[in-house]
Amino acid sequence: MHGDVPARTVLVTGAAGFIGANFVHYWRRTHPDDTVVALDALTYAGNRENLAAVRDEVVFVRADIADGARVCEVLREHRVQVVVNFAAESHNSLAVLDPGRFFRTNVLGTQELLHASLGAGVERFHHVSTCEVYGDLALDSTEAFHEETPYRPRTPYNASKAGADHAVRAYHETFGLPVTITNCANNYGRYQFPEKVIPLFATNALRGVSLPVYASRHNRREWIHVDDHCRAIDAVLTAGEVGRTYHVGTGTEASVQRIADLVLDELGLPASLQTTVPDRPGHDRRYLLDSGLLRDTLGWRPTVPFEEGLRETIRWYRDNPGWWEPLLERRPVEERAWTESGAGAR
Ligand code: NAD
Fold first, then answer.
1. Which of 83, 116, 309, 333 could join 72 via S-S bond, C-beta 3.0 to 4.6 A?
2. How far is the CA of 291 from the centre of ligand 1 (A)?
3. What's the gap in Å between 86 CA and the centre of ligand 1?
4. Percent of the chain scored above 70 by pLDDT?
């Protein structure tokens, strides 16, 4: 028992990825009596090293969420009660070049996982989604997305995540599967694959390679430390209302230019170590979530101030080259690839 909650078996999918691995670490710290089954297909983005510190404490299963029969077996064998679904293709830039794999994993894979979870009678299916399903906001907009904002995805990644969210709701409405969803702002922290902007900038800077800043350098994102995201999912699993969606955001926005400036400043490098690159096709200008529901009903608050968390993250990359150096050659896309392939020409 931990507090009033009896020990459970929790299946974490996408557990060898950035947020999934941080969630496994978080869950081991905060719910030590629970059994964690960490499932991952180990795509280029999955890395068992992310789970090295808990290797002896969790059951690792290499499997694809789109393989329904295998997922059924895992759910039954381990008597899984709670599923937390992080598994996804997650890189917008790769989605421009290879959209099919995004729809296969994010939509069809999620549906297979939902179906298997229904068959196995899981007590909760929590799905991890993104602010990006709503499309983008003008840079000078005074609006924020709320839980009832209509979906208006603009990229294959966004659209595949939107499709997954609809599938999750359909399994609740049609079959009564007890689901919850969180749509979260952009995450940063340790173990993020060096294709996403913060680790890309940090690892480039650490190698003396210039930072590729998109031409629309003032486009901004709302940023959240991955530990605050994990705490939010915990709050929803513990006290969230079944069938509901909760937004997870900090209200703290930063442009790509500010990120580049902070990375170079933290590492004591000159501002000249950056170069302008063309925008990715369909590049969203801005996202901002209204997370009032989560704050007001479940009492969640972000705890990590952005600049402090970002500087600590940059120092983590500086201190752990052995973690990220082997990953560089696994990066599936260069930030200029679409200009060469003609993808997204319009
Ligand atoms: P990530 O790419 O680092 O990790 C994804 C993991 O899923 C990888 O380990 C990969 O091997 C695994 N995976 C991919 N396809 C799979 C499949 N078919 N079966 C099983 N495993 C598979 O991504 P992340 O940044 O950790 O994102 C995790 C989740 O959070 C995703 O659903 C993403 O959409 C969502 N999300 C991410 C952010 C963010 O800022 N990173 C923000 C909001 C929501």
1. 116
2. 22
3. 5
4. 95
